[in-house]
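Appendix B, Record 12. Input sequence as logged:
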Amino acid sequence: MAVHAPARPEVMTVGSAVHWRGETYLVTALQGSSVHLLSHHPDGEDAVVLLDALHRCPGFRVLDGSDTPAGDDGPVPPSAPAPRPLGGADLLDGLSEKARQEVDFWLDHVLEVHTGLPGFAVPGTAPRPCYDPGRTTLRDRYETKAAELRAAHHPVSVATVERKRLAWLEQGVWGLVDKRRVRGPSRHGRVDEQVVKLVHKVHKRQEKKSIGTRSRLFELLRRACVRKFKKKAQQLLPSRATFYRLLDRLGIVCGKQAAARRGDGSHRPEPPFTLAMATAPGEQVQIDTTSLDMLGVDETGRVVSLELTAAIDVASRTILAAVIRPKSSGTKTGATSRRHGGRATKAVDALFLLSEMCTPQPMRPHWSLKAAAKGSDLPYAQLVEADERMEGAAARPVIIPEMIIMDNGKVFAGRAFMDACAQLGISVRPACAYSPTHKAIIERTFGSVKSLFSQFLPGYTGKDLTHRGKHVAKERLWRIDQINDFLQQWIALGWQQRPHSELRNPFLPSMPPRTPNQMFAAHVASSGYVPLRLSAEDRLRLLPTAWVQVTDKGIRLNNRTYDSRALNGYRNTRSGWPGKGQRWPVRYHPHQPEKVWLEDRRSNKWAEADFVYQRLIGDAWSEHVWDQATAAHLDKGGHTRDETAIARLVRSLLERAGRGPSRTATPQPAPVERGMHVGPAPMQDPYRGIPTPAFHNVASLPVMDIDPRQLCAPAVRLALPGSSSGTPLTGDGRSHDSAPAEPS
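Logged structural output:
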């Protein structure tokens, strides 16, 4: 196939006249890639231009002898069409043989219309008179070519010939290809484009709702079509089978596939991915909360699910701190009332996590000696020299974060956590919403904790119902404080001293992976170790703050009253804080609610107040126990201001939890719900309504004083009144003396 360019670039030599930037120039010299131009205009200026820039300049063309140079005031001659590249033939490689034959066919005819000679013409051949550009117009050649093709049994019109030529001038050889042969299948098939947009809109509304099936999405689309298109909805709405195929083309999944996609990284960011990098301990710390996939026993003896909040250092993969908290739903007495008895990880737990990061983990007497920092891979002597608190500590280093990466949960996005980080000089960077890959290291660490720690303890539930056992809640479960103790020992022994696959020497990749403690020791040897000491006041400032008024009765906080002699100077007085009036900042500890601390910034002192009914409780308790007692008190019709009754309930809950479950009481079986009655209707009791006789009140029958056989005798002698002796009577009551005589 002969491939010809639509127009050959002009040949420019020394002495050629060119038109450039509205003026006419004479080419006086060609030196390398530069062209020296001499202006024809008397007031014009000469120029030296790069040859490539001259060819690419709009309006540039080489003038032949027939062209008349135009001055600045004369009309500018029309510029020739920009030269098209000779390429385009490689685009035909993927076409079928029939399509390539059509391109060859039209290329010869288009060239003959445009230049007067077909593509297969020998150089020097004169064009036919009907196609001679010097004798005929372009319109005449269109009509002649169309008539010639129709005579050769190719039914084409003049407009088709014109369209082919213009496409060839614009796109080259590719413009002669029938685009119907290269058109791919439509992504949405034959469904109307408006309906496709409506499908996307309806699906987007359902993204944050519970997952449904395709049939629900089809019904929602039908309703949306009726609302938007009115009478045309029946014509535009596809059939159910077509709609299901459309969902496959659009990549919209429902049902089980959508449920599986929610947890498989569907919210991951677009590639390329950048791994979290840190060159020093504390440079980047990731913090998050997850379910521990375990059941435990809380302070009141209830079986609850557990949550884990942890922080990990990116550079050394050290778990800086970890906190276990129960998760249970409470009860509400009204739509706008506070929920009582519920519990989950709160912002104060994140504050405790910060304090744990800055404090060495002390060894406990029952822990293994292998969990101690002394004798481990940590530089124990250097750490004790810099911080005496490390003496006798566990094998978990203390790293002060420089930057914390957190998610957008309310546990970390609250004001208390931000203020605590600002107080410690820690910068906070939130991760992108719905992008767990932005803190992938802590997410992967959670998976390791569950596989290396959780699944070996009783009460392990697995990640979902398909992995959960049938009688998990009936196992001998550990208390939450015991599970937390196991976790702290496991971190020091099973995590910090275990080789991590990501801790390798980049310069010596053949070396085995290092442990987090070994990596921390390497960084300490190169960058040193500076401890951070938190004073008692610093720890108080890490607690959450409540702005309350100090009255004659003391401080009222969370349905509890606190009072002491230290509050005498603050009762009904202004605090001095801007815009707070008589409200003072009070720090409270949710896990130690028997005390609160009032901060006086004027004298830089702290006033401590005790719970007024602490003597009724006696033992250590938490706000979670108080909420459960409050919920039980409200169920009985009580009020939240009855603090004495709630305090006694707290005491009873703690005592009952200390005794454990009863071994003698037999639990009552729950009534069986049998549903509606089926079968024939029962017969009505004929004795219904008749009272049941009291058999113990029925009197016995009297004893007869004569022989029962005498009741059947034929006659009974009875004494008649007025007679001295009795007269026998007959059976009908007449006497024998009055009986008639027998006939003689």
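The radius of gyration is 50 Å.
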